[in-house]
Amino acid sequence: MNFTIILAAGDSERMEGINKIFYRIGKKPLIFYTIKAFEKHPLVGGIILVAREWDSKKFFILIKKYRLKKIKLIVKGGKERQDSAFNGLKAAEKLGVKSGDLILFHNGANPLVSQDEITNVIRAAKKFRAALVGQSAKDTIKEVNKNGIVTRTIDRKKIFLAQTPQVIEYKLAKRAFEKARREKFYGTDDVSLVERLGIKPKIVPAGSRNIKVTYSEDLKFV
């Protein structure tokens, strides 16, 4: 069974006091649309929600109200996003995940992920053991030194902006996260931990709609 770990334990620090995952969009909280994308996908067997402890009651109400069937567990978030992802991984183990099953790590604030993106990234992960969706860079990319002086122009055809879902074979994810934990290494996304093992994840192009809501103006876009 493939599991999706939805990471919804962040503090919305850059949202001007707005709790983005419960912000109402079309009379439903933003997190509903994120969950629903995986709830209706046939290749996802179960969903694990990683949330702040004081939000648990809200999630139980949401599950009951919208009759969400695939949510198997709600687990407490960690200090950092990576700690939260690790807690979700341990929860999958309790639910009986097998070594060849896939774990989909997805930000709770990415509500516009499409069914095709989920399908394509799962297929890629089955072949390459790790995959992620990403948006190709549209602008010219400049590298600068510490003084802000341009040192080179990078070929934007080789640059992708990482988004979620990021999908990793369970056995590989467990090894990567445990290694990072032992070495006190924190990556900026999930597949970066796999890269440290010498595995090269596959990039699956994502549409421009699949964004992580970070700033208040992003809510207008959603």
Q: Quaternary status of these chains?
A: single chain
Task: Show unreliable segments.
Answer: none
Sketch the major β-sheet. 7 strands, mixed
| Alpha-carbon distance between the two ends | 31 Å
**The first-level CATH class name:** Alpha Beta
Mean pLDDT: 93
How many structural domains does the protein architecture include?
A: 1
CATH architecture: Alpha-Beta Complex
Classify the helix fraction into a percent range: 25-40%
Share of residues in strands: 25-35%
CATH topology: Spore Coat Polysaccharide Biosynthesis Protein SpsA, Chain A
Shape: globular
Indicate the radius of gyration in whole angstroms. Answer: 17 Å
Descriptive notes:
The structure is a single chain. This protein is of the alpha/beta class and 222 residues long. The protein has one domain (3-221): Spore Coat Polysaccharide Biosynthesis Protein SpsA, Chain A. 33% of the residues lie in helices and 26% in strands. The chain is built from seven helices and eleven strands. The protein has helices at residues 30-39, 56-66, 81-94, 115-128, 170-182, 191-195, 216-221, and strands at residues 3-8, 24-25, 28-29, 46-51, 71-76, 102-107, 130-136, 141-144, 150-154, 160-169, 202-205. Strands 5-4-1-6-10-7-11 form a seven-stranded mixed beta sheet, with helices on both faces. The protein has a two-stranded antiparallel sheet with strand order 2-3. It is globular. The mean pLDDT is 93.
